[in-house]
Structures are given as structure tokens and as C-alpha cells.
Amino acid sequence: MTPPPYALEVFREQTLLRLASATHTELPAGPGLRRAAVVLCVLEQDDVLGVLVIKRAYRGRNPGQWGLPGGRLEPGETPETAALRELHEELGLLVDPSDVLGRLDDFPASSGFIITPIVAAVPAPGPLVPSPD
Known about the structure:
alpha+beta
């Protein structure tokens, strides 16, 4: 049986090929710039693909805004490690590093961060447990 054209397996295969053949832009760190990573986490439910987003707390950075899960890199972390750690902290979702498909171009944010988007496809995420923070 052939999976529907929008199935997670098809998305995974096509995205791996596209990201492997592309060169991503990595911006250099500079004075006043810190590194952060977000994860574009693709899931499938009832044969429909979706992306996880979170609503930030009404305090601190970007209060009340919708965005991708993520945050700053801790010393010694790669963008991939930081993005998966933040996804677990924010939504209780443990993602295996093998579910990471690649990364997109770095971009500077007005908050003083250089952000690296990481793309992951998660086949069976289980229940999400949003952080009360």
C-alpha cells in the first residue's frame, strides 16, 4: 500500500533529500548576538501533517506571542541539541536525534539572537505536556 502523498514518511524522505542537497547559511556570532535554535516539528495525525507551535507566557521575552519551540544554546550545545532540549522542556516531547532532518538558514532576530531553525519529523510523539511556565 502506497502512503498518501502527504504522509509523514513521504515528507521525511523528500525533506531529507532537499536539505541534504542544500547549503544552509550560518551567520557568525558577533558582539551582542547570542545563539538560539527553534524546531520546526512536523507531526502526523489522522493522515494530516501539522507543525507544533507554542504560545509564550505573558512575561519575559515575546509575551503572549505564538512561535516555534526553542531557546538559547547552552555552552557546548549544538543548535540541534538545544532545539530538542527546548522542545522537551516546553512540551514534554522527547525527540530522537534520528528524527532531525536538517537545518534551515540562520536568521537574526530583533531580540539580539541568531536563530537556527531545525527541522524534525516525529512519527509517534505521544501526549504533549506543555510547561506551565
